[in-house]
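[step 3/7] fold_predict: job queued, chain A
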Amino acid sequence: MGQGRSKETSPSRCRRSSHSDGSTEAPANRPNLQPGNASEHPISNRGAPGEPQYSVEAAVSLQRALLAAFAEESFQKLLKLAEAKHPNRGQRLHPDAQAFAVHLQGLLLHVYQTVLPKAPWCLSPGWEGFRQMNSRMASVAEHPKVLVVKEQILAMLGLPRHAILRAPAEEPLLTETPDGSGCSGASLAFEAALLRDSDGDAAHEFWEEDRSGRLVLVQPRHASAAANAPGSS
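[step 4/7] structure written:
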């Protein structure tokens, strides 16, 4: 007769509550919020009224998960491409500064959509989860251990150590276009003709990775102007 096998416990997962607001419940095996040593609980009961607060250990764990995502090769390649396209991003009044900020927000959004909804944090994906994270870290945001990881994240993003990451302002649902064009004055316009390389690919710019791993702007071999008319070959 075979020996019995103990039932394996499954890893904690995020569960959606049945509440109408669609808020996310904590994992089933998350400890109750009780007074005591903060290290014993993923979330402590101290902090802003009405908002559960992370312990130092939970905040550091979440920040390290974000740091690992920012350190991935795929993210770093996209970041270096954005930096190369905006060489004057460090000048506050230069157009590159705002353009790079918008580009960076797009890169950060993908990471926040991927990491924040995971257990044990179970936050909303994207910038809403970013706001929740900051709110729940309020009571430990200035703790030395938390600050160290924050500075590591800023360094990984190529930003000054005292920079502050902020969620973008919400875009308006409707934008007036008095000229009837359907486009706002802030819309991007590409006036230069498309270039076509020897493989038939068409683009305004072509970037290649050199031997050192840096992305550089190159002139495509056998480049020619691509016709802008629809259906052109």
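[step 5/7] annotate
The CA atoms of residues 51 and 136 lie 7 Å apart.
Confidence is low (pLDDT under 50) at residues 1-11, 17-48, 184-190, 227-233.
exit 0
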